[in-house]
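Hi F.,

I've been meaning to write this up properly since the lab meeting, where we talked about keeping a consistent format for the predictions we share between groups. The idea is simple: the sequence comes first, exactly as it goes in, then the structure tokens exactly as they come out, then a line or two of notes. No screenshots and no reformatting. I'm using this chain as the first example so we have something concrete to point to.
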Amino acid sequence: MILTTLAACDDHGGWFFIPLIFIGWFLIWGLLLFGFWRRRRWDGRDGTAVLAERYARGEIAEDEYRARLAVLKEKKQ
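Output, unedited:
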């Protein structure tokens, strides 16, 4: 109701909302671009591939690799 009153007021000629519109559009485009970038970044990689990479780099031991792989296979079924 306050925003409607401000828009109808003749003191500022209706120019009050122009910056808000631009800020809103920048936020919308920024969120869309961020979403596409994040989706593209993780696209095509499943949990088993990431797990195999970590095991190959030596970040996790064999017993941990096998335990996590069993959990991932359980969830797929």
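Notes:
The chain has four helices and no strands.
The helical segments are 2-8, 18-42, 47-57, 62-76.

If this format works for you, I'll send the rest the same way.

G.
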